């Protein structure tokens, strides 16, 4: 058996075995993945995964009495992760600690999204923070346009177009040549926190 990527403690394994045993489907497991990996907003998620519903690049790990599919692109963000279960007055709660889930990956084989997130969080957001602002990637379109959303002091700011064109877009396109453009999807009618009104 391959060495486990995620340490699922005995109480958590007992809980998951019990939970999966109550499902009316044989061969059902769990699927574990990270949403917005490599960003401060990363979230570790777990869902039921009936047999045949795993993705092609998912990796299977077998535990006693059940199996877990790890999303292929989440594997590197889930190294050293620990899933635990603690009983409490409400019954109990699964906890998920994944210390690498929020660390940007800029290895040679990093995806364009991962590269964009790295540049946003390592270079651009520290500069915007001086005005109380931030920017995050919402999506990357098929034609390689980064769709961004500004927050804080940048939302509703009267000079956000200059920030986008001369700062954010210029920096991203210099660092990531595959990128063809940048689009702002922020609702700038909300000006409550705008740095320049």
From TrEMBL:
Residues 116-182 form the NIF system FeS cluster assembly NifU C-terminal domain. Coiled coil: none annotated. [4Fe-4S] cluster binds at residues 154, 157. The keyword Phosphoprotein does not apply. Keywords: 4Fe-4S, Iron, Iron-sulfur, Metal-binding. Binds 1 [4Fe-4S] cluster per subunit. The cluster is presumably bound at the interface of two monomers. Residues 6-99 form the Core domain. Belongs to the NfuA family. Homodimer. Involved in iron-sulfur cluster biogenesis. Binds a 4Fe-4S cluster, can transfer this cluster to apoproteins, and thereby intervenes in the maturation of Fe/S proteins. Could also act as a scaffold/chaperone for damaged Fe/S proteins. This is Fe/S biogenesis protein NfuA. The lineage of its organism: Bacteria, Pseudomonadati, Pseudomonadota, Gammaproteobacteria, Oceanospirillales.
């Amino acid at each position: 058996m391959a060495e486990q990527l995620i340490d699922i403690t005995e109480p958590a394994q007992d809980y998951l075995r019990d939970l999966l045993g109550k499902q009316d489907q044989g061969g059902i497991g769990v699927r574990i993945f990270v949403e917005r990996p490599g960003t401060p907003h990363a979230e570790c998620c777990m869902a039921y995964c009936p047999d045949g519903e795993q993705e092609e690049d998912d990796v299977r790990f077998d535990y006693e009495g059940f199996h877990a599919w790890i999303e292929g692109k989440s594997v590197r963000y889930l190294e050293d992760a620990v899933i635990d279960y603690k009983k409490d007055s409400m019954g109990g709660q699964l906890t998920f600690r994944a210390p690498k889930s929020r660390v940007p990956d800029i290895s040679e084989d990093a995806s364009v999204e991962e590269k964009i997130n790295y540049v946003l969080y390592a270079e651009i957001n520290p500069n915007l923070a001086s005005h109380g602002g931030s920017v995050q990637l919402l999506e990357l379109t098929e034609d390689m346009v980064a769709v961004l959303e500004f927050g804080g002091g940048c939302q509703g700011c009267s000079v956000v177009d200059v920030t986008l064109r001369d700062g954010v877009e210029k920096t991203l396109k210099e660092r990531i040549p595959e990128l063809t453009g940048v689009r702002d999807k922020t609702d700038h009618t909300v000006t409550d926190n705008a740095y320049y009104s």
